[in-house]
Amino acid sequence: MTPAHFTFSSAFMLGLTGLAFHRTHLLSALLCLEGMMLSLFIAMSLWTLQLDATAFSPSPMLLLAFSACEASAGLALLVATARTHGTDRLQSLNLLQC
Q1: What global pTM score does this model have?
Q2: How far apart are CA 88 and CA 35, in angstroms?
Q3: Any stretches that span the bilayer, and where are they (predicted)?
Q4: Has residue 95 been placed in a domain?
Q5: How far apart are CA 32 and CA 14, in angstroms?
């Protein structure tokens, strides 16, 4: 395992464990998701550079565009949750309530 592969794998796993174990606020969950997407973007960019394949070169930009859409949807949900419930704590949200 190369040091770069280990670094991006550990960054992804840290984001995943942060998402799994520290789910108190919606903002922290969104930040963990963004960290995971950033590590995937950098790993995919380095992968296309190492393979020297031009066929895979649009893939990191497509992943970055999807992560920007995910971030904007997450922030819209955060604002809507903060306006309706008054907080972004995940324990105060009830999925059965309309």
Answers
A1: 0.83
A2: 19
A3: 6-22, 29-49, 61-82
A4: no
A5: 8
Residues 69-78 have a mean pLDDT of 92
Q: Determine, yes or no, domain membership for 1.
A: no
Which ranges of the chain does DSSP label H, i.e. alpha helix? 3-21, 26-51, 58-85
Answer yes or no: is 73 within a domain.
yes
CATH, residue 65: 1.10.287.3510
3-state secondary structure of 3: helix
> Do you know the residue count of the chain?
98
Our count of domains for the chain comes to 1
Alpha-carbon gap, residue 47 to 60, rounded angstroms? 10
Percent residues over pLDDT 70 in the chain: 95
Question: How many angstroms separate the CA atoms of 19 and 62, rounded?
Answer: 23
Residue 7 lies in a domain: no
